[in-house]
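sry for the spam today, last one i promise. struct tokens for design, 168 residues
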């Protein structure tokens, strides 16, 4: 399992773009994690699935609401990672109104999730292999903070916890 001080997995996530801009085509675009985190401070949070109750009601809205405070504390970008496809993450981004605040990144084959060791097997519930719920602060490609939730919990991966760690 990934730990504080470790380098973030060098893999690719996918991001759905609704409009063409900054060299991005419309549709799913590859995000090279190593390149995208180089020289930046990233507040990353991961969750079991798009459109699921806790994720939609609390997790994503908390990061959207704290966007300005996280930026003021030195965060360059906020990422939400989930084992879903880019089209689902794009639809969820529209529904959650994350544009310009939270990058909704798809880990469709769970490659990133597997490499972090933070998997959650929800096969018995018909959802297959998913990501555990957690947050991490990434500085220049390395894990600076890591907050892993216990089973069924939402206590330490919220925006307020990461914000307090940035101020500590």
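last one done:
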């Amino acid at each position: 399992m990934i730990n504080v001080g470790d380098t973030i997995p060098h893999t690719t996530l996918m991001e759905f773009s609704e409009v063409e801009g900054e060299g991005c085509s419309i549709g799913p675009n590859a995000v090279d994690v190593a390149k995208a985190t180089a020289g930046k401070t990233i507040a990353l949070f991961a969750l079991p699935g798009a459109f699921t109750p806790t994720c939609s009601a609390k997790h994503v809205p908390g990061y959207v609401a704290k966007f300005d405070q996280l930026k003021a504390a030195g965060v360059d970008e906020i990422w939400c990672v989930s084992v879903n496809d880019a089209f689902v993450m794009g639809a969820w981004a529209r529904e959650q109104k994350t544009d310009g605040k939270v990058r909704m990144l798809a880990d469709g084959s769970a490659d990133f999730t597997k490499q972090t060791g933070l998997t959650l097997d929800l096969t018995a519930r018909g959802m297959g292999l998913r990501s555990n719920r957690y947050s991490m602060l990434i500085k220049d490609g390395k894990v600076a903070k890591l907050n892993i939730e216990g089973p069924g919990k939402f206590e330490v991966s919220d925006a307020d916890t990461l914000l307090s760690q940035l101020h500590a």
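Residues 12-167 form a domain with the Glutaredoxin fold (CATH 3.40.30.10). ok im logging off now
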